[in-house]
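Protocol step 4 of 6: structure prediction from sequence.
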Amino acid sequence: MLQDWRQITMVPTDDGPIEVHLCGEGPLVVMLPSMGRGAGDFDQLAGDVAAAGYRVACPEPRGLGASAVPDRQETLSTLAADVAAVITGLGGGPAVVVGHAYGNRIARMTATEHPELVDSLVLLACGGFIPVTEEMGAAMRTIFDPRNPPDVRLDAVARAFFAPGNDPSVWADGWYGKLARYQEHATVNTPVSDWWAGGSAAMLAVQPADDQLAVPANADALVEAVGDRVEVMVIPNAGHALLPEQPKAVADVVIGWLDKA
């Protein structure tokens, strides 16, 4: 859960309101969480970035908190429009958009379709180009199926999201299967080529060294596609979860990028 001292505001859109958690003052940084997970994943990073002199906005995905679920055909374009509405509602940006895992797809689509609102992108565990293995796909299905015993689900979390030896219990909960299915529909309805290059934005790809879902070959493919428009930083001893595994390393890299920008 996000810290009590953070302000919660509602951003109105034509498709219903979006709940946004805010902290800090300064240039705007928007953070988008992983598939089937909420804004609370950024609890530590948002606080660190805010303390460094930035205004951080963490929107709750549609269906979590008070963020309304619209009656629409979902695509990454519609999810990017939500991010654009948040940036506009908070003053118009441009903002640095940080996307973790699935959130990096939305971030890149936002930069593609709303370039005037995006200063640059930070992609944490950026995947989507190299397909996941059947083993990892099975682990994901296990995690999101509430019929599985907690210990079975936690074992799948460890295998899919955490580097060997790191404690997966910090992500034992916070998994929303209905949200994941909703987001998966958006992925299926959107070609990778529509969002992969991130428009013309400068990008920082923060690659976990032990990522089993967004394997390092994804970052390599992004460099091949856009050249020096993307900078890659590798975080050792981290898997796809990344944020709870190496919070200080991630904060240092993200704040360094923001300060440079």
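Step 5 (inspection) to follow. The longest helix spans residues 76-89.
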